Amino acid sequence: MCKTEYAVCGNPHLLEGSLSAFLPSLNLAPRLSIPNPWIRSYSFDGKEEWEVNPLYCNTVREIYPYSNSNRLLNIVDMAIFDFLTGNMDRHHYEMFTKFGDDGFLLHLDNARGFGRHSHDEISILAPLSQCCIIKRTTLLRLQLLAEPEYQLSDMMRESLLQDPLAPVLTEPHLLALDRRLQLILAAVGKCIDTFGEATVVANDTAQPQSPAAHRAKVET
Question: Known binder of ligand: residue 166?
Fold first, then answer.
């Protein structure tokens, strides 16, 4: 297969593709579509502010809900996911309305992921490198997946081995995951060197104290 309108060619009969999974209808599971603060310009005419202003995150931090919730940390998680897969096309994210402002982000529309295994688009990591924050649980998981016995490429290879569509990812794409993981850890390390671990690594493992426990502590 080799058609100019698709701009792709088979090699000789295999062709890369993507699968789509559909969520329940909006009537059953209402959700919001929210613009990504780090949306790309998608144009040669100009740049988005984050593409030219390294202090852009300071502006984002002043905007609700990024100013007083876990939303910004979730955006950083999403950027890390997109960087690992090479997805530059995260113009929106979605959330189920049922869970309010602190609900999890839905990473829909990943069709641009796993495109060029030989290219690491560092700009995808802008939320991490500009805001210099990351969840402790995310960092610990990334550090674990960088260990030789739990290497990310090996974990993915084993996970996908029994998939009916195997091989889901080619070997160069699997190896790219390990390379990109090291770049993420390097970006976190640079932030820690600049601002300190206490500022960069957000402790998302602490459990909120119950009102009863708080009263007991005050009374004693």
Answer: no
To the query of whether residue 178 is one of the catalytic residues in this protein, the response is: no
Assigned domain for 61 exists: yes
Q: Is 94 annotated to bind ligand?
A: yes
pTM of the model as a whole: 0.84
- pLDDT, tens digit, 9 for 90 and up, residues 111-130: 788 888 999 999 999 999 99
In a domain, 13, yes or no: no
Q: Which of 82, 89, 178, 204 is catalytic?
A: 89
- 21 annotated as ligand-binding: yes
Q: 158 in a domain, yes or no?
A: yes
pLDDT digits (tens, 9 = 90+) for 142-164: 999 999 999 999 999 999 998 88
Q: How many domains does the chain have?
A: 1
199: left (phi over 0), alpha (psi -120 to 50) or beta: alpha
CA-based nearest residue to 80, from 126, 131, 35: 126
Which structural domain range is residue 126 located in?
30-204
